[in-house]
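Tokens in:
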């Protein structure tokens, strides 16, 4: 009994150290949209975010031409990495823990925009994409 509890506590501590699951809770989609939009001096646009997220792009890796390559076109459903690992839904309505950890959001925007667009997303683009994903 005691041993099990220790093991659980250890797993919890490791999960916390690794920043997983997204429970850091230092921000929210709303806050991030406001921050990115202020940085870019623009109003966030759901339509622009949708076009960027759902569109096909060149300039990045040929095997990931779109955000939907992994996140799929149905953002309320579970997606998958190219290796087949599940990715929780991106739509805020389907997954309220989305966009609550600013370090996580920054890391994946950097990585995924580079894969798909061959460059980092601008602050304006991030505001648009988060506005779109929060509207679903
Ligand atoms: C190669 C597969 C892949 C592609 C392509 C991809 N993503 Fe992701 N994305 C992931 C994985 C894996 C995660 C991390 C796991 C998770 O959050 O469920 C993630 C997480 C994210 C997150 C963090 C979400 C959060 O809760 O903090 C954002 C934002 C994001 N992706 C945006 C994008 C955008 C925008 C594009 C297109 C420019 C894109 N992704 C393309 C695989 C991908």
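Residues out:
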């Amino acid at each position: 009994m005691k041993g099990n509890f220790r093991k659980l506590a250890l797993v919890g501590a490791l999960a916390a150290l690794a920043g997983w699951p997204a429970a850091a809770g230092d921000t929210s989609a709303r806050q991030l949209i406001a921050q990115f939009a202020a940085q870019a001096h623009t109003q966030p646009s759901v339509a622009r975010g949708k076009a960027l997220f759902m569109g096909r792009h060149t300039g990045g890796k040929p095997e990931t031409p779109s955000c939907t390559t992994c996140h799929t076109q149905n953002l309320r459903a579970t997606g998958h990495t190219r290796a087949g690992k599940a990715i929780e839904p991106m739509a805020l309505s389907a997954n309220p823990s989305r966009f609550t950890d600013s370090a996580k959001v920054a890391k994946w925007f950097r990585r995924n925009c580079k894969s798909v667009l061959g460059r980092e997303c601008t602050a304006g683009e991030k505001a648009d994409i988060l506005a779109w994903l929060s509207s679903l």
